[in-house]
TrEMBL record:
Stored InterPro entries: CheY-like_superfamily, HATPase_C_sf, HATPase_dom, Sig_transdc_resp-reg_receiver, ST_Response_Regulator
SMART domains named in the record: REC (SM00448)
The protein's name in its UniProt record: Response regulator receiver domain protein
Keywords: Phosphoprotein
UniProt superkingdom: Bacteria
Listed Pfam families: HATPase_c, Response_reg
GO biological process, one term: phosphorelay signal transduction system
4-aspartylphosphate modification, residue list: D59
Domain (Response regulatory) ranges: 10-124
């Protein structure tokens, strides 16, 4: 049976031994993959500047420029590039050091045809999924703007949504759940129904229960807060990011994170104590890095992620925040434990869905925390939007954590990766 792979662009083979280059080219072509070659890393870098490649197959030990330096230089210019290292070096320490560079796989010479096919097949599928995600994100950004504008100006139609707007059924159901569950809009609808049922009409006036009326007055606060958060959400979506970027360093990023942490500590003290959740002080990175950022939107993003961690953390747990750098990106990681009996965390098949507008993975755990800026059901959607505008990557998913106790447990890890600049 013929083995065929579908890679849009050719691959680049960087190998100083001619016989090895020729062998890999023949194998690649037998899989239906076009390949170019370079005898050292310097020539490979020059070729990569002139042409796009699906991936790079790199030898480690080469003259002029070795594989380590080639990978680092390409990653600085094209951070999302994919690499397979093909080397005769099977020393575990060397393999670990190479894997830290963020390569896709490490193959030991001599090259096994079936093993090479398996790796190229996985890369082909990875590229396909990334392209699908890119298209989905682009479509969602446009759809989100349209949905938010509709909500702001058509909220009076909430009780009859199906007759007034042509939205997909899934988005419509998620949107209705966001409005009619929890405090604010949902509570006011319920209170008005109670008033309607208990009202006594006397000529031109109605008599209502004072308790129900006072309850209505109290919930107006949450309704106004919801509308304000909707305005802030639209403000971010309509922002001209290109005119607001400035170069900030790792110390400033640390300051933004600490500011969000301290704000959460003070403004939600009662709720935090009720759950007995702690958020330790965030360590300052040892090395300095610069990124181009809109400070206001980045600050809001960190605040939203910390609030999200607090809402969905299990009782008696810790929320940890780490800052690190790798592969040309500054990474901000937020880790929180969750109670699997009430919240499933972020299962693998839900990682993209939780970024969708108004998608609910779990019930309304708590919707009225202080300083929550984004409209209910849009928090992670706008975080993803803001980070994409910064040229970065936002991901959130379950991971197995071995650092907490004697037994590894499943936790949620939210990661913001922002490109480092000179």
């Amino acid at each position: 049976m013929a083995l065929r792979l579908n890679l849009h662009n050719p691959i680049l083979i960087i190998e100083d031994q001619e016989e090895n280059r020729d062998l890999i080219v023949r194998l690649a072509k037998s899989f239906g993959v076009e390949a170019d070659t370079a005898a050292d890393g310097k020539v490979g870098c020059e070729m990569a500047e002139k042409k796009d490649y699906s991936l790079y197959l790199v030898d480690l030990e080469m003259p002029v420029m070795n594989g380590f330096d080639f990978i680092k230089q390409i990653k600085e210019k094209k951070p999302e590039s994919l690499f397979i290292v093909v080397s005769g070096n099977d020393v575990p320490e060397i393999i670990i050091e190479v894997m830290k560079l963020g390569i896709f796989d490490y193959l030991i010479k001599p090259i096994d045809r079936e093993r090479l096919y398996q790796v190229l097949d996985r890369i082909s599928e990875y590229i396909r999924l990334k392209e699908s995600e890119r298209i989905l994100i682009q479509e969602n950004e446009e759809r989100l703007k349209a949905q938010l504008n509709w909500i702001l100006y058509k909220q009076s139609w909430l009780t009859d949504l199906e007759k007034n707007i042509d939205l997909s059924k899934s988005t419509l159901n998620n949107l209705k759940q966001s409005f009619f569950s929890g405090g604010g809009f949902g509570a006011i609808v319920s209170i008005v129904e109670m008033l309607q049922a208990s009202a006594k009409k006397e000529e031109t006036t109605y008599n209502f229960s004072s308790d129900i009326v006072e309850l209505l007055f109290e919930n107006i606060y949450y309704t106004k807060k919801g509308l304000l958060s909707l305005e802030k959400s639209l403000e971010i979506l309509n922002k001209n990011f290109q005119n607001s970027f400035q170069k900030i360093n790792s110390t400033q990023i640390h300051h933004l994170l600490e500011k969000s942490r301290l704000r959460l500590e003070s403004s939600n003290e009662q709720y935090k104590q009720k759950k007995n959740v702690t958020i330790p002080q965030i360590s300052l990175p040892s090395n300095g890095y610069h990124i181009n950022a809109d400070i206001d939107s980045l600050n809001r993003t960190f605040n939203e992620l910390l609030i999200n961690s607090l809402k969905y953390s299990s009782n008696n747990s810790v929320i940890n925040v780490y800052i690190s750098a790798s592969g040309g990106y500054l990474n901000i990681n937020m880790k929180n434990e969750f109670d699997p009996q009430s919240v499933p965390g972020i299962p693998k098949n839900k990682e993209l869905m939780v970024k969708q507008p108004f998608y609910r993975l779990a019930g309304f755990v708590h919707e009225n925390l202080e300083d929550e800026e984004y409209f209910t059901g849009l928090g992670l959607t706008i975080v993803d939007f803001v980070i994409k505008k910064h040229g970065g990557i936002f991901s959130i998913h379950n991971v197995i954590d071995h650092s907490i106790g004697e037994k590894p447990i499943e936790v949620v890890l939210a990661t913001v990766s922002l490109p480092i600049v000179d």
